[in-house]
Amino acid sequence: MIVNNIFCSFYSMLLLRNGILEVYYEIFQGFKNSPKTQLLIPYAPHIIIKEWNVELQERTSKFRKQANAIAEWDRRILQNRDVLLKLEAKVAKVVDTQSNLERHRS
Asked: Of 6, 24, 65, 89, which is most buried with the most CB atoms under 10 A?
C-alpha cells in the first residue's frame, strides 16, 4: 500500500513535469524560424529532457506492470502459505519414510 502511494505521488510529479516540458517544447517550435531562436538556445536541453521523460514514462509503466505482477504473486503465496507448509511437512514425511525403507532393505 505504501509503495503504491509513493508510486502515485511520483507519477503525479512526472505528469506535471511532462506538461511543463511540453509547453517549453511548443514555445521553442514557435520560434524555430525566427531570428530570436538564439534566445531560446539555452532552453534546448528541455527538448532532450522531454524525450527522456517520454522514455521514463514508458519504463515506469513497464515497472509498474512488473511490480503489480510481483505483488499479486506475493499475495498468492501468502494466501497459500498454510497449504505450502502442509505440503512441506508431507514431503518431509515421505523423505523420512523413504530413508527408513532404504535402511531396512540393507
From this structure: 24
